[in-house]
Amino acid sequence: MSAELNESPFPMSTPIATPIGLRRRRTATLGAQSSPAAVTSLTQREWSKRYRRWLILTDSVIALFAVSAAFVVRFGDDPVGPEAQQLYILLSGVIALVWLAFLSFTRTRDSRIIGSGVAEYKRVVNASAFAFGILAIVFLILKIDIARGYFILALPAGTLALLASRWMWRRWLLSRRRVGEYTARTVVVGKRDDVAYVLEQVAKQHSMSYTVVGAAVVDQETAEPFSSRGTSVPVIAHIDGVAQAAANLTADAVIIAGPVDGGSDYVRRLGWDLEGTATELVLAARLTDVAGPRIHFRPVEELPLIHVEIPQFEGGHHIMKRALDVGLTSLGILLISPVLALVALAVRLDSPGPVLFRQERVGRNGERFTMFKFRSMVTDAEAALPALMAQSEGNGVLFKMKDDPRVTRVGRILRKYSLDELPQLWNILTGDMSLVGPRPPLASEVAEYEKDVHRRLHIKPGLTGMWQVSGRSDLTWEESVRLDLYYVENWSITGDLMIMWQTVKVVVKPVGAY
Keywords, A to Z (predicted)? Predict the structure, then answer.
């Protein structure tokens, strides 16, 4: 699985960052307790400033190029007079400047959102839409005559270019973070179990911007270091010595991983101790399987409240999801119709039997439907299944077998590149499935679901999903269920688009397909 997959639109834990002051520029080297893998040549403040300068530069080039290209496309074959030309050149500069201003005002380059999740992309899209919306209103009020075609061309082209630029910068940033650079040197504080949980989440996701250089524990019965995914993290202090330990290690952040002795009083005192430094104080809210977009903060006097949205399975977002399904699926069928014809011909010539395989699956709210796939097995595959059950490599109710003898020669190729799934585009058009969603289960699988697992049926099953981009058949039953339930409660349109993009990469470089 590529590093980009780990920047999932659904983060596994939600840190609440609170900056406490600014640290003076540091040049100290690491102490003997720190891991060599954690060595970084720049402090968080230094690398984030440098990274923002690069983003500002590329954003500026793209904004100027977008409005210039729109001008050329719109007026290249339709010359305008010198005065009108000067006006449009001036307006192009104004549009670019306002656009860049909105990208700054909406904090699209905030160090807390770069490198993971969808917040950065959302802010770029929102900033672009707001900038052009306000410009359109101002031009209308001031009665500034501007060609709509020219104005409309710059927005989609420039926004797509900005998103592509941010994606490429993110790929570069992730490559640096995999070797321990461009991260915040972090000390984790709490009970051993809570600290171990945070360390596991940080180690699991390369996209996270933290490199843990030490831990301070409440129940310090032993100084035994923590071990997470091949990385050793030393216990450097008791919780009462966190501020001094963070200073000794030149830490950029201190994460409090759950309840500690002293409660809110301890957190307040630690904040005081960190005053005058650039160390951030981070409270890890262990809201299991709740994605960031569902969490909102509401300060009420001296009681900061965390609001967690209850999942909704009806309403406007689902209407938008359906509209996206119909639009992209219709376009997709038109574009890949030659591929569909070639695959159908290959299936027919490879082995006797029908081109399409039909199977009853369970959809939203338990409704059953007929799912279509290109046939990748021999015609008596269902009858031969009971004899193979003893050889299943699955975990739970799923049957898995890497070298399934029922799969045809062409079928192995179709399965490897997910080409056998393409007829499900028809299921999407008819409304039985969605482009993104949980894996469509068999009725026999649903019959063995535990109570909580039935929540997978709250939304339509998908042609692709988190299971598709996270290992496919290599996943255990428990992992598959966890990913599907996580998606059901935390999905978003932006998250769906990111999963679609991840799916394209997985299809090109298959992982766990058999």
Answer: Membrane, Transferase, Transmembrane, Transmembrane helix
| Pair (361, 496) in one structural domain | yes
Range of the domain at 241: 3-35+183-308
369 part of a folded domain:
yes
* Total count of domains within the chain: 3
* Residue 199 · residue 233 · CB < 8 Å: yes
- pTM, entire model: 0.67
Residue 255, phi then psi, degrees to nearest 5: -105, 125
**Domain final residue, candidates 252, 274, 308:** 308
Over its length of 514 residues, how does the chain's per-residue pLDDT go in tens digits?
A: 344 334 444 343 444 343 333 333 333 333 333 343 334 446 677 888 889 999 999 999 999 999 888 888 877 655 556 666 777 788 888 889 999 999 999 999 988 788 777 888 889 999 999 998 898 888 888 877 766 777 788 888 999 999 999 999 998 988 888 777 888 888 888 888 888 888 887 877 655 678 888 888 886 666 777 776 667 788 887 788 888 888 888 888 888 887 887 777 888 888 888 887 778 888 876 665 565 566 666 666 666 666 676 777 788 888 999 999 999 999 999 999 999 999 999 999 988 889 999 999 999 989 999 999 999 888 877 777 776 765 655 555 566 666 777 888 898 889 888 899 999 999 999 999 999 999 898 888 888 888 888 888 999 999 998 888 876 666 777 778 888 888 888 888 888 888 998 888 888 776 655 5
Assigned domain for 513 exists = no
Q: Of 177, 210, 226, which residue is a domain's last?
A: 177
Is the sign of the CA dihedral 406, 411, 415, 420 positive or negative?
Answer: negative
Which residues pair with residue 190 across a beta bridge?
217
What 324-331 contacts at long range (C-beta under 8 Å, 24+ apart), as own/partner pairs, is 324/435, 324/493, 324/496, 325/428, 325/434, 325/435, 326/428, 326/429, 328/435, 329/425, 329/428, 329/429, 329/435, 330/429
* Same domain (yes/no): 483, 412: yes
Query: Are both 162 and 257 inside the same structural domain?
Result: no
Is position 514 within any domain? no
